[in-house]
Amino acid sequence: MVIRENYLKKMRPFYERDLIKVITGIRRSGKSVILNQIIDEIKKEGVKEDNIIYINFELIDYSDIKTFKDLDKYVKNKMINNNKYYLFFDEIQYVKEWERTINSYKAKYKNNISIFITGSNSDLLSGELASLLSGRYVSFKIKPFSFKEMCELKNYELDKYKIEEQFNNYVKWGGLPQRFNLSDESEIRTYLSDVYNSIVVKDIIQRFNIADLDLFNRVAEYIATTPSQTFSAESLVKYFEVNDDRNVGKTTLYNYLEYMCKANLIEKTERYDIRGKRILNGKYKYYLTDLGLGQILNTSKKEQMGAYLENIVYNELNYRGYDVTVGNLDHREVDFIAIKDGQKEYYQVCYYLADDNIINREFNVYNNIKDNYPKYVISMDKFDMSQNGIIHKNIIDWLLND
Q1: pLDDT score, position 190
Q2: What DSSP character marks residue 384?
Q3: Can you list the residues of the chain whose pLDDT is less than 70?
Q4: CA angle 167, 175, 56 (to 5 degrees)
Q5: Is 120 in the same domain as 173?
Q6: CB atoms within 10 A of CB 234
Q7: In this structure, are 44 and 137 located in the same domain?
Q8: Which residues, listed in sequence order, are joined to residue 345 by a DSSP beta bridge?
Q9: Which DSSP state fits 336?
Q10: Dist CA 147 CA 152 (whole Å)
Q11: Residue 232 sits in which domain range?
Q12: CA distance 52 to 78
């Protein structure tokens, strides 16, 4: 088992605090495992089993807990002493009006309770809970395994050929933890298809009452087969007119993209005008939360390694805690502006720096950025091609570095 230290080290300061710990992320990204790792840690600190209440609402064992009243009754029956209790509610969105119970416990038990909740919807904290608990919760977003976590899980030796082979596997099949228990590609594809269908059915169709499932899947396929591209509703409308002879409303397309974001299937990234120092509205980039889910949707189009690598760098920067936007400067694009703790970094990503034209394209985009923040070019090339203060990194080396 991989101890997901990247997340645990951020959560530990809050184990004993009365702030509600909210953990979100795409289905099967490992939220339940992280809860169990937290439970193991607090047990080592002396917390007794009787004072830990764990409920996974996806298990049939807890199928009778349907409303906030059911939840309250179950928990109160478990609270048998006056010691501090630690409550772990996994995939809590299955409980109707669950936020009422959480808010009640927050007020009633105060410092004598510590609450952890997980959910697969990115807007778990929208609406009533956000109003009820404003300023009284802290949230963490969990992603599938990083490449470094994958190598740790599989105990890969730092053999360059072995690592490169496994990197290609990671690019193709992504980092959802349970898929590493499967070795046959047909099994992996079946598993990822089941995860995708579960996300679509449970987190999107049932929740948003989508009537045209075929159109939704076509939009999802379009995003999956053209990752790392700048999108607008107008470009999608034109695509469906030309390729499907179908008239699709912009509002419908915007809604479908938003639903996919809320289910953590994709992430929307804003574009930032570097010279004007402002966010550019109307056009966004969408990145797949996990490339493996894109693989099962891409049944006909050729692989786009440059776009896949860009997607991986985006996910890694988020995993490392950066706020990420896409840079725009004089009609040219800087792939990423990454900010963390007030410090800024710039990133360009490509497959290979195969010739002078590509080298000039990737490095020269920085010519008009006059600040002294670090500027990187990331590619599959194994030789260091750094120049003029711009740092070149092999993507595998960069992913394996702390």
Answers
A1: 95
A2: -
A3: 122-123, 125-135, 157-160, 276, 280, 282, 300-301
A4: 165
A5: no
A6: 12
A7: yes
A8: 338
A9: E
A10: 9
A11: 147-400
A12: 9
Question: How far apart are alpha carbons 314 and 308 in whole angstroms?
Answer: 10
DSSP codes, 154-194: HT--S-HHHHHHHHHHHHHH---GGGGG--SHHHHHHHHHH
Q: What is the 3-state secondary structure (H, E, C) of 89-145?
A: EECHHHCECHHHHHHHHHHHHHHHEEEEEEECCCCCCCCHHHHHCCCCEEEEEECCC
Q: Which amino acid is at 359?
A: I
pLDDT of residue 206: 82
- Burial of 195-227, coded b for 16+ CB within 10 Å and e otherwise, reads bbeebbebbbbeeeebeeeebbebbbbbbbbbb
| Residue 57 · residue 92 · CB < 8 Å | yes
Do 316 and 207 belong to one domain? yes
24, containing H or E segment = strand 20-25
Residues 6+ apart with CB under 8 A from 239: 222
* 360 three-state secondary structure: helix
C-beta separation of 100 from 68 below 8 A: yes
Through-space distance between the first and last CA atoms of the chain, rounded to whole angstroms: 20
**Calculated CA dihedral for residues 353, 354, 358, 364, nearest 10 degrees:** 40
H/E stretch holding 338 reads: strand 332-340
Question: Are residues 174 and 256 part of one domain?
Answer: yes
Token pair for residue 273?
A: 């005008």
Tell me, yes or no, whether 178 and 318 share the same domain: yes
Same domain? 124 vs 164: no
Report the CATH number at residue 14. 3.40.50.300
Sign of the Cα pseudo-torsion (269, 256, 250, 209, in order): negative
Q: 131 and 177, same structural domain?
A: no
What angle is formed at CA 371 by the lines to CA 369 and CA 374, rounded to 5 degrees?
95
Question: Bridge partners of 132?
Answer: none
- Spatial strand order in the sheet of 85-90: 52-56, 85-90, 113-119, 20-25, 137-142
Eight-class DSSP state of 200: I
Task: Report the alpha-carbon distance of residue 151 to residue 360 in Å, rounded.
Answer: 33
**DSSP strand pairing (391-394 vs 137-142):** unpaired
Of 397, 371, 401, 402, which Cα lies nearest the Cα of 386?
A: 397
- CA-to-CA distance for 25 and 144, rounded, in angstroms? 8
**Other beta carbons less than 10 A from residue 126's beta carbon:** 11
Q: How far is CA 257 from CA 221, 254, 261, 398, in A?
A: 12, 5, 6, 31
